[in-house]
Design goal:
Belongs to the ABC transporter superfamily. One of its GO terms (molecular function) is branched-chain amino acid transmembrane transporter activity. InterPro entries: AAA+_ATPase, ABC_transporter-like_ATP-bd, ABC_transporter-like_CS, BCAA_Transport_ATP-bd_LivF, P-loop_NTPase. This is Branched-chain amino acid transport system ATP-binding protein. Keywords: Amino-acid transport, ATP-binding, Nucleotide-binding, Transport. A hairpin with a 2-residue loop joins strand 2 and strand 3. It is built from 11 helices and 8 strands. It has a 6-stranded mixed beta sheet, with helices on both faces. Strands 2-3 form a two-stranded antiparallel ribbon. It has a single domain, classed as 3-Layer(aba) Sandwich (Rossmann fold), CATH 3.40.50. By secondary structure, it is α/β, with parallel strands linked by helices. The longest helix is centred in the C-terminal third of the chain and has 16 residues. It is about 40% helix and about 15% strand. The termini are far apart. The structure holds adenosine-5'-triphosphate and magnesium ion. The site of magnesium ion has 4 residues, from helix 2.
Length: about 230
């Protein structure tokens, strides 16, 4: 009995229902692959409440959140790192992190955790965010999302436009967060990178889930091999 209730309590499901229906179990890393225009950003933006859908449901631990105001969705633990990494350009790294912490209150322990995850940000602590490289801005955008103590972290194409060495740093951080039990929904066009770290994956095509399964299952599919694995 105890076993059963524990299992239920620890299970977190996100569903975005339109044509698309996906689930992120608690503590898992779920990847969503898809070509340009497949509807990947629309999916995470809908979950985060940035994009409002006329129909559909987003459930966080069984609670519908799709009609809630944005700040409430954030407070409940949904954090989006958007495509194109939004940071506050004139503010320093430290100021960007402080701004994102709960109610703008400083949270040194959490800030230190971000610096542990991305030592490069610690070195750039007093640097204006707008003057940093794309990779550093991606790290900072992830750091800002982590400052909200998210239950689910939504990452929209974190590798986009970055050099392979920087992508590796970003993916090491993603794997470290996953190992700590952070639930992550990872949007990617780079199937090789995403399938290497995911527990479960979806392929989106024209706004629909074309395929779902384990990374091994998706990697074996001809569709994915042809379009994404080269
Ligand atoms: N489920 C859907 N049904 C119908 N249209 C959709 C759906 N999802 C997205 N679209 C539309 O498809 C277009 C592309 O969507 P979106 O920007 O989400 O794609 P993307 O996969 O993030 O693309 P990119 O790789 O370029 O970032 C948008 O105009 C959007 O409104
Ligand atoms: Mg997109």
């Amino acid at each position: 009995m105890l076993q059963t209730s524990r299992l239920c309590a620890s299970y977190r499901a996100i569903q975005a229902v339109r044509d698309v229906s996906i689930e992120v179990p608690d503590g898992s890393l779920v990847a969503v692959l898809g070509a340009n225009g497949a509807g990947k950003s629309t999916l995470v933006r809908s979950i985060a409440g940035v994009h409002r859908q006329k129909t559909g449901t987003v459930l966080l631990d069984g609670t519908p959140i799709q009609s809630m105001p944005l700040h409430k969705i954030t407070r409940l633990g949904v954090a989006l790192v958007p495509e194109g990494r939004h940071v506050v350009a004139p503010l320093t790294v430290a100021e960007n992190l402080a701004l994102s912490s709960y109610a703008g209150r400083s949270d040194q322990a959490l800030e230190d955790r971000v610096y542990d995850l991305f030592p490069r940000l610690a070195e750039r602590r007093d640097q204006a965010a707008g003057l940093m490289s794309g990779g550093e801005q991606q790290m900072l955008a992830m750091g800002r999302a982590l400052m909200t103590r998210p239950r689910v972290l939504l990452l929209d194409e974190p590798s986009m436009g970055l050099a392979p060495s920087i992508i590796s740093v970003i993916y090491e951080a993603i794997a470290a967060l996953h190992a700590e039990g952070q639930s992550i929904l990872l949007i990617e066009q780079d199937a090789t990178r995403a399938l290497a770290v995911a527990d479960h994956a979806y392929l989106l095509q024209r706004g629909e889930v074309r395929m779902a399964g384990t990374p091994a299952e998706l990697a074996q599919s001809d569709d994915i091999k042809k379009a994404y694995l080269g």
